[in-house]
Amino acid sequence: MSVVQDEMSIFEHLGELRKRIIYILVVFLVGLIIGLFLAKPIYDYLLKADTAKDFVLHAFSFWDAIGIYMKISMVVSLVISIPWIAYQLWAFVGPGLREQERKAALRYVPFVLILFLAGISFAYYIVFPMALSFTTTVTKSMGLEETYGITQYFSFMFSLVIPLALLFELPLVVMFLTKIRILNPIRLRKMRKISYFVLIFIAVVITPPDFISDFLVTIPLLVLYEFSVFVSALIYRKQLAADEALEAKYQQPTDKS
Q1: Is the Cα dihedral 220, 221, 222, 225 positive or negative?
Q2: Across residues 43-57, what is the average pLDDT?
Q3: Of 22, 161, 166, 200, which residue has the fewest beta carbons closer than 10 angstroms?
Q4: pTM above the 0.90 mark?
Q5: Contact status, residue 105 vs residue 90, Cβ threshold 8 Å
Q6: How buried is 97 (Cβ within 10 angstroms: 0-12 exposed, 13-18 middle, 19+ buried)?
Q7: b/e for 199-227, b at 16 or more Cβ within 10 A?
């Protein structure tokens, strides 16, 4: 009988996961439609920026313009959807958490959007111009004539901006996992070498194949990791203090007796 109950429980979890995924897809689709209306002004803004104004960008395919609009609308949809995605994840794992952990995790949801926007801003206004400047400088030093396609320009930009924006969520993920006692600063410090290797590998994979881009992405990721360790330590100290206070509370009647 217990096996049947376990199987029912698994099916119930799968059904709940399916429901949450559908909710996410619906909001993402709505965001995609909104993004299509915002694509043109965003496109105009990006082309008037200092990083793009000196380039004459070309279309090498009939689908280039449509493809760029779709990419921009998908980024807009991701910005709109990401706090909703975080909420749905919270709603899915929430029943397995204690009441205090559920409330703490829910408070993190707004910061998901804040960190994502901070990551986009940092990547677009700092990392992307430096990477673009380096690549164009190398191109000119080789005496090559610059003829860039609109798709190549935006693909280069999005390949830096979006992954880095997502990786800006690292401190929040560490805070949440520390709060529910899966991670702690001691474990994070022990994992530092492995974590550094993984972050450097990620930086190399998500960036264009040049050392400067790798370096410009790697350094912020390592700083984010160390900041995550610092934040985890703050939460961990509060947890230890709360545990000590609770232990003292339960020991007090024993001492009196």
Answers
A1: positive
A2: 83
A3: 22
A4: no
A5: yes
A6: middle
A7: bbebbeebbeeeebbbebbbebbbebbbe
